[in-house]
Amino acid sequence: MQRSKQQALMFILGAVLVGGVLGVSADRVSQGKQKHWPTRMLMYNDLDLSEAQRSTMDSLLDDRNCQISAVMKPVRPQLDSIRKAAHQQVLALLEPAQREKLELRRAEEQRKDSLQRARRDSIQATKATKTTTACN
Fold first, then answer.
1. What are the angstrom distances between the C-alpha of 79 and each of 6, 67, 118?
2. Which of 12, 67, 85, 92 has the most C-beta neighbours closer than 10 Å?
């Protein structure tokens, strides 16, 4: 009996981890280059790229991100479903006080994500007026 409880717990934790990894991957793909902009700039500086090279590289990477986003679009609902099911399993595992702590943490993460999304959208809107590169 104890062994099956341990196996169930391990299964739930595994599902949560897989859901988290898939969620992070989908999030990075869906947010495009803005999330990686500091990393991109560090790479450009490290490679000592000229402005022309940086511009061309931006176009190539933006195009790649658009293609990845298009591929991920039909999969996102499945990823969301997996994430939601794993979250429900975790909630069922936790005691009420633990659930409350988890939900507070989750709300804080969503607040931070909203702020990042607003900042990213603002930057993209500014860049859209300067360049015509955008995902269709």
1. 26, 18, 23
2. 12
Q: How far, in whole angstroms, is CA 49 from its chain's centroid? A: 28
**Rounded Cα–Cα distance for residues 42 and 127 (Å):** 20
Listed by start position, the domains of the chain span 2-130
pLDDT for 103 equals 93
Contact, 56 vs 28, CB < 8 A?
no
The residue among 91 and 2 whose pLDDT is bigger is 91
SS (H, E, C) the chain: CHHHHHHHHHHHHHHHHHHHHHHHHHHHHHHHHHHHHHHHHHHHHHHCCCHHHHHHHHHHHHHHHHHHHHHHCCCHHHHHHHHHHHHHHHHHHCCHHHHHHHHHHHHHHHHHHHHHHHHHHHHHHHHHHHCCCCCC
The single-letter code of the amino acid at 87 is: H
